[in-house]
Amino acid sequence: MRIFKGIAASEGLSKGKALLHVRSSMVAEKQHIMAKDVQGELQKIHKAVERSKKALEEHQGPDISAEPAEILQTHLMMLSDPEYLGQIAQYISTNLVCAQWAVEAVTESMVSLLESSSDEMLKERSVDFRDVSLHLLDALSNRSQRTVKNLTEDVILVADSLMPSELFSMDKSHILGIALDGGGRASHVAILVRAFNIPSVIALGSASQKVHDGDEIIVDGNYGEVFVRPDLTAAQNLNERYARWQAHEQELRQMIDLPTRMTDGHEVLLKANLQTVSEIGSAKEVGASGVGLFRSEFLFMDSVGGSTEEQQFEAYKEVIEAMAPLPVTIRTIDVGGDKVVPGMGIDEKNPILGWRAVRFCLSRKDIFSVQLRALLRASVYGKLQIMFPMISGVEELNAVLHLLEHVKEECRTEQIPFDPDIKVGTMIEVPSAALCADILAKKVDFFSIGTNDLIQYTIAVDRGNEKIAHLFQPFHPGVLRSLQMIVEKAHQENIPVSLCGEMASDPLCSVLLAGLGMDELSMGSQSLLQVRKILRDVSFAEAKQLADHVMEMDSYLTITTYIREWMHDRFDHFTTI
Ligand code: PEP
Ligand code: MG
């Protein structure tokens, strides 16, 4: 038996057989060959092309929406492109290298050529070439990504890294648990596994290298542990853990219909973060006071979601109607960073600081206006609030507000009804926006603090990088000062502040955030009852006292230790599960 310790990303306990999905083993094996072997390598390419085409054709069908269908078609065409295939064959015979090496080398040179082009369309093609080359490399190494898409039995997915878009394309009904070498708790893949309720442990280092396909695995998403080939005693202990967790969950269910009122009457609204329309049920089930963050970009990744105006309108309407009369805050698309949507031409060297969210939207007003129009049309079905991500200053905010007014005007001209009192807010997740909170607060109806990014950019620590995950510290005095200032400036302008980053779902942060004056906390539905239970047990006065006290401290270590002890003293059985 081997035990790996990582970060608990999504609660629950699951047991099953491992299915390895390891990207590093897909990296081309580089081997020189003899002249007599050239023909054999060319044959391999031919077979790999046929296998890849077959794999892609299997995805075509009536259920697939327009955009993914178009991408599939493009990839199929590339697999028949004589220029691309000819260059690969030429590379093999000229350089006497194996097929994998040639695919990678030719793809890389095509990609650099396309990327340096000033034509946006050509630039976009580079992403497709990378994708197609992965299919070929898959086929050449006899490894099939399709196994994850078309699973026939339940598995525990063990991977070195996983992109949000990959997770979307997988058959999640058969994924019992996930063990991932990389990632941080606030990475989008971690947010998604929680949304899909898949028990998961991330940041496991090199666990995937020690696991074989078919190994028995237990994933403990509460304690952040993964057991490979567990022995009998470990399995029994885990059964006990599981029973305790279920009892705890049962206890939390008593919180469902209660308001999140602190003992002295102060109320904090707890709302749900949604990534997909299918999560509405979970949000309602736990008695969320609305949706505080709908991450609309995932509609563009979900092949069944689609992204035309009509498809978006239907999705927004469904959420707004289902939650009415409670408010639903839909965030305009935040693509880029680790959320690469195929076909949008985002493939950058430094994506976290790159063409992301409103930066992308303001240069692709064609896509952005369609979204705003779909949102306005859907607004008449309940209480919609629109929110903009990654705003860094007043120019960007003015630009998006201006575009929104323009789209409203178009709707008026076309007599398309929309809610005239629609509230508009901005996310505060870039340090410059936090520092300009007083300026921005004059222009919007509400703030929502995205601590996942605010922490990432304030401490300069990539939220998805497991090697520096220990530096991603919500209790860093720099972060807490920022939060305090944002609330103060917002309240001076009489606008409410929500916090919708993963910090909102961490029970260790709950009392402090209430004490700092957050009006709303928005989180994955999984965590809402636990946070409600904690806040209902303390007074606002106590919470403020705690906040005032820790704001005097000078390091995250001191603050974390102090808050941990405070919570243990204050709650008999303080537990984060
Ligand atoms: C955040 O940054 O905290 C946030 C809520 O947005 P996202 O996690 O989607 O970047
Ligand atoms: Mg963010």
Account of the 3D structure:
- This protein has 577 residues and is of the alpha/beta class.
- It has three domains: 2-17 and 152-251, Phosphohistidine domain (Glucose Oxidase, domain 1), CATH 3.50.30; 35-141, Orthogonal Bundle (Enzyme I, Chain A, domain 2); 255-574, TIM Barrel, CATH 3.20.20.
- 47% of the residues lie in helices and 14% in strands.
- The chain is built from 23 helices and 16 strands.
- The strands form two sheets. It has an eight-stranded mixed β-sheet with strand order 1-8-7-3-4-5-6-2, covered by helices on one side. An eight-stranded parallel beta barrel has the order 9-10-11-12-13-14-15-16.
- The model has no long low-confidence stretch (mean pLDDT 90).
- The structure holds phosphoenolpyruvate and magnesium ion.
Q: Keywords, please?
A:
binds phosphoenolpyruvate, binds magnesium ion, 47% helix, alpha/beta, 8-stranded parallel β-barrel, 3 domains, 14% strand, Glucose Oxidase, domain 1
What profile does the largest beta sheet have?
A: 8 strands, mixed
Mean pLDDT: 90
Alpha plus pi helix count: 23
Output the strand order for the largest sheet: 1-8-7-3-4-5-6-2
- Fold-level CATH name of the largest domain: TIM Barrel
CATH superfamily of the largest domain: Phosphoenolpyruvate-binding domains
The CATH architecture name of the largest domain reads Alpha-Beta Barrel
DSSP strand content = 5-15%
Number of domains: 3
